[in-house]
C-alpha cells in the first residue's frame, strides 16, 4: 500500500508539472506550489525522489526551455539536492551532447551555478541519502573499486567523476579519445541508441546550428575543467582524489596531456591556455595552503567521513586513504607524519597532535568557499535557445 501511495504521489507531481508547463506558468510559482504540496504530504526536502522525477521528465520527452526553468527554480529553492541533479544529468546529457547541444550547454550552466558550493550541501537534510543516490546513479563504487558509503568519500568521487566525464567528452568531440591505449572507457560519451536525423533544408539548418553550438560547448567544457581545478573548494576535493586514488589520477592526467597537446578547442579558448591547464594539474598540491589543508580535513569531518565505522577501521591502508590528518599535522608538528589506522586511533594515540589540531579548529575559519557565477544568466540562455532551431 505504501508503494502505491508513493507512486500516486509522484504521478501527481508529474501531472502538476505537465499542466504548469502547458499553461506556461511562472517557474517560481510552480516551485513554491510544489514545495508546499510535498511538505503537506510529509516529504522531506530536498527530495531525492523529486530530483529523479524532474530529470526523467526533461530527458527527453520534455527537453524544452520551460522544463529547464522549472528545474532551475527547484534547485534555487533547495527542494532537490543539487549534486544529485547534476550527477543524474551528467549521465544523460553528456552522452547525448551532439544531438542535443542546447541541453549540454544548459547543463554546464547549471554546473557553473551549483557545482562550486559544496560546503552548503553537507549541512542540508537528506545529504547522506542524496550521496548514496549519486553512488547508485554514477556507479561510483564500481568505477573506482571502493565499497565506501561515507558521504565525504562519495563527494570526492562525484566531483572527480563529473570533471572526468567533461574531459572524456571534450576528447571525444575532437576525435582524440580513440588515441588512448584503452578502448573501453569509464564514462559513456555517445548515446547507446543511434538517432536518425530528418531531411530537407530545415534539417540542414538545424544541423548547422547544432554544429556551431557543439563547437562552442567543447571550448566551454574545457574551460569548466580548468575552473574545477582552480576553484578553491573543488581543487581541494580533486587534491584528495589525486592523493588517495593515484592510479585513477594517472589515467586522468594522461587525458589532460592528450588534450593539451592536440586540442584545437583549447587553443580557441580566451580564458584557458594549454600551459595554464597543464600547470593546474601538475601543481594541484600547491592550492592547499595551510588554510586549504585544514579546510579539506574539516569538510570530510563535517560530512561524516571521520565517524567511526567498519569502513574506516579495516586496516592502515584503507584508513590512510581517507583520513588525511597529516595535511594538518605536517604543518602543526615539524617533521611529524601520521600513519593512520582509524579516526579513533589517530585522535587517542596522538594527543599532542590532536591538541594542536583542536587549537587550530577553534581559532581558524575553515571555509571560504567562493561561489562561481560567471557567465550569462540561465534565463537569458533559455530564451536564446528557445528562439533557435529545436534540439529534439
TrEMBL record:
InterPro entries: MED33A/B
Name of this chain's protein: Uncharacterized protein
Amino acid at each position: 500500500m505504501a508503494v502505491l501511495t508513493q507512486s500516486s504521489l509522484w504521478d501527481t507531481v508529474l501531472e502538476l508539472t505537465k499542466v504548469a508547463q502547458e499553461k506556461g506558468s511562472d517557474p517560481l510559482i510552480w516551485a513554491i506550489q510544489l514545495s508546499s504540496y510535498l511538505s503537506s504530504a510529509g516529504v522531506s526536502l530536498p527530495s531525492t525522489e523529486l530530483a529523479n522525477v524532474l530529470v526523467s521528465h526533461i530527458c527527453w520527452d520534455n527537453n524544452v526551455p520551460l522544463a529547464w526553468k522549472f528545474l532551475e527554480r527547484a534547485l534555487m529553492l533547495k527542494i532537490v539536492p543539487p549534486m544529485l541533479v547534476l550527477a543524474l544529468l551528467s549521465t544523460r546529457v553528456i552522452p547525448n551532447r551532439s544531438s542535443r547541444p542546447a541541453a549540454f550547454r544548459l547543463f554546464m550552466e547549471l554546473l557553473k551555478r551549483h557545482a562550486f558550493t559544496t560546503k552548503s550541501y553537507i549541512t542540508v537534510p537528506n545529504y547522506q541519502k542524496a550521496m548514496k543516490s549519486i553512488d547508485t546513479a554514477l556507479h561510483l563504487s564500481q568505477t573506482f573499486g571502493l565499497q565506501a558509503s561515507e558521504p565525504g568519500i562519495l563527494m570526492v568521487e562525484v566531483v572527480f567523476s563529473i570533471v572526468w566525464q567533461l574531459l572524456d567528452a571534450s576528447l571525444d568531440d575532437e576525435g582524440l579519445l580513440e588515441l588512448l591505449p584503452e578502448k573501453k572507457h569509464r564514462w559513456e560519451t555517445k548515446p547507446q541508441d543511434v538517432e536518425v536525423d530528418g531531411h530537407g533544408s530545415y534539417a540542414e539548418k538545424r544541423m548547422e546550428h547544432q554544429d556551431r553550438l557543439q563547437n562552442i560547448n567543447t571550448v566551454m567544457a574545457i574551460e569548466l575543467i580548468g575552473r574545477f581545478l582552480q576553484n578553491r573548494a573543488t581543487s581541494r576535493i580533486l587534491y584528495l582524489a589525486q592523493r588517495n586514488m593515484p592510479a585513477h589520477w594517472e589515467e586522468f592526467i594522461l587525458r589532460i596531456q592528450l588534450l593539451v597537446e592536440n586540442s584545437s578547442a583549447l587553443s580557441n579558448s580566451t580564458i584557458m591556455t594549454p600551459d595554464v591547464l597543464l600547470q593546474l594539474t601538475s601543481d594541484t598540491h600547491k592550492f592547499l595552503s595551510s588554510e586549504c589543508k585544514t579546510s579539506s580535513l574539516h569538510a570530510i569531518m563535517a560530512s561524516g567521513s571521520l565517524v567511526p565505522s567498519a569502513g574506516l577501521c579495516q586496516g592502515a591502508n584503507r584508513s590512510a586513504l581517507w583520513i588525511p590528518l597529516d595535511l594538518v599535522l605536517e604543518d602543526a608538528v615539524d617533521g611529524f607524519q601520521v600513519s593512520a589506522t582509524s579516526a579513533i586511533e589517530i585522535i587517542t594515540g596522538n594527543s599532542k597532535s590532536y591538541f594542536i589540531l583542536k587549537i587550530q579548529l577553534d581559532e581558524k575559519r575553515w571555509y571560504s568557499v567562493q561561489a562561481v557565477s560567471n557567465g550569462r544568466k540561465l534565463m537569458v540562455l533559455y530564451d536564446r535557445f528557445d528562439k533557435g532551431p529545436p534540439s529534439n
